[in-house]
Amino acid sequence: MQLSMKDYPSTVYFAAQASMVSEAQLVRSFTDSYKELFGNYPKTGYAALGFDSIMLLAATAQKHGASSAAVRNGLGQIKDFEGVSGTISFQGNGAEKPLYMMQFKSGQKSMATILK
């Protein structure tokens, strides 16, 4: 069974990579710029995650050099990068960032909680 989110009779919770409903300045700036470029606001956090990925690579290249080896080795040293999808740090070979629990109730999407 597949229904539109607005057709569910109760609250639906789901995980998201970023909260596009956040009032944080960086998020608002990103969503406004996205709308200006594409004509509508991003529907999911994946656009923010992609943007943050490129910004992380650029910040790493600027700090450690632009060669693939410099970026690969420097990326693991990133700590507390402020991205649209939250604060990102690397631990070993993986990134750590918040996971957003969203809720959809009565046709409105909002953030339920942030898991860090």
UniProtKB/TrEMBL annotation:
It comes from the Eukaryota. This is ABC transporter substrate-binding protein.
